[in-house]
Amino acid sequence: MRVHIRTTHRRGQRRIVGALSAALLCAAGVTALPAAARTPADPGPADATRAARPTPAPRLPDGLAKTPPMGFNNWNSTHCRAEFNEDMVKGIADLFLAKGLKDAGYRYVNLDDCWALPERDGDGKLVPDPQRFPHGIKAVADYVHAKGLKFGIYTSAGTKTCNEAGFPGGLGHETSDARQFADWGVDYLKYDNCNNQGVDAKQRYRTMRDALKATGRPIVYSICEWGENKPWEWASDVGHLWRTTGDISDSWSSMLDIAKRNLPLAPSAGPGHWNDPDMLEVGNGGMTDTEYRSHFSLWSMMSAPLLIGSDLRKAAPETFEILANKDIIALDQDALGKQATVLKSDSGRWTLVKELAGGERAVALFNETDQPQRITTTAQDAGLPQAAGYRLRDLWQHRDTHTTGTVSATVPAHGTTVYRIAADARWADHPPAVETGTDRTPLVEAGAATGLRSTVRNLGGSPAKQLAVTLKAPRGWQAEPTSPATARALPGGRTLTTSWRITAPAGAAPGAYPLPLTADYRSPGGKRVTTTLPGTAHVVVPPPSGTAYAAELPWLSAANGWGPVERNTSVGERDAGDGRPIRIGGTGFAKGLGVHAASEVGFYTGGRCATFSAQVGIDDESGDRGSAGFEVWADGRRVAAGGTVTGADAAHTISARVAGAETVRLVVTDGGDGIDYDHADWGDAKFSC
Ligand code: GLA
Fold first, then answer.
1. What Pfam families is this protein classified in (predicted)?
2. Ligand 1: residues within 6 Å at CB?
3. What are residue 499's phi and psi, to 5 degrees?
């Protein structure tokens, strides 16, 4: 990873916004979570769990923000663009009511940067931008209030706000600005950090706290100094929430990086004083709905403020469905106000636990990797007392089942399964939970057949009756069970294993195809349950015989620390095709792969190739910087591992025997020092088949 230095809207100060790769691979649990994936603030799961003891800290006495604030802020969707205006703000307030968001708990409608004119008036007062807010700010606040909602505004604890146009900041104007906000009816202030002139942060944020208090109006106070001065250590009696990281962006890597930085801070959060991992990106288009569900699940588990960051006037139904999930919101808004802790984190499989009021627990099984993963824990490990059975509510499926203790799921790539678990004497009233799984992601050549084994395991204490397992093949395919796929009754603790024969039609185009596995059954009381595991099959193409260059073969999967994997060029870190000719230690390579640690590229070799070889190293464009380790994996086995190479080294040869392997994966690790500058090249990478 290269650090990105954002200077655009920083005056006199530079701010480094880190981002992290989505490239956490771990297919089949082989690759461990790279050290680079740990941020400095992330000591790893053991420490995070150990640190979960609450420390008594002074609190603001005003009783505000007893649960994390919920609402909207325009920044993530509009930045300073002209569409940020009175119409938008009113439109959002309207939708809060029309779409049930107010009912779901969303209250604050907040303005971010760019609402003011660059100069104060003759009395030193802030002036709303007349183009954006022709009726002034008070009129908008009144409109919002008339709907039973609350209104928020933004400024910076500096001489100017963060936007490069430089709108007036609050430093030195705290009393007057706070008064003006209170007069307008402001209920929430986000106070940023730009152009702070090096004045001590504690002093700057306390001055505004006191100015807000002096107005006599209850105003939620959001500290936005990006975690630079560890506000979680001193701000619990300064603000009601504090940003813990740099700005989020609408990408999986940004969201993941921020979640990992915010997770270890659990002990600092509680009613009236929350960690703020930044506003939501749900619905902005840069992530899949599965990823947005993970984003929303993680934020709610972390008791984060839930500030919608998409323009709801253009939002898809799925966006509303995610944002209005009351089962998930209830975790965020739980009265106990405990941020989730990490129970376990292993190779990108995360188990988070949130203690809830009344002794229940929420468990999130979060899959950071780009392959489906089985993640498993127990009710007792989640902190519940020993009991004969537990009610298990799936908060995305909105379904109650029971378990005798195991809490387990195969979680899709980048997905999160969230359960609410209670020790329940009447557990048997709910159908048994079943866990569905498959032994592999099938790879099949067009016109050929392959095998797959599915399992359906009853996690409950009563039988799953009239169980029927189906594998829904794509159109033109066949998926036939070659062993029983039904059971009259599957007792608690038992597993039905079914073998399948899957045939792809001749001429099927290479690529991924959906292959969902469904288990349908009835509880002893006759209640019907249908549960579906989304799955995938790949149509693969065998490599040609002779020399097959890696850059000319289709990939099964490709993941990179920065930017896409490139064919025959180095990696440019951003877009496809932005690399340069491959060059290692002064030697150029016409063919090869350009990757960025941590990386993994998978190939289908179908048992047809004998060897793989390449000339590997850090691309010359990194200078002497960067280091990486190169590895070749055949099916689940590592068959070659070069030592760590650095930017100063010439190309090394790596070669491996891959005879008999169905798949080969080319893996690049970070060399043990993080992924900065790790432009890693597989020069002349080729198979002999
Ligand atoms: C900073 C904040 C963002 C946003 C912008 C506005 O970057 O961290 O959340 O408020 O400023 O300029």
1. Melibiase_2, Melibiase_C, NPCBM, NPCBM_assoc
2. 9, 75, 112-113, 161-163, 192, 224, 226, 247
3. -95, 140
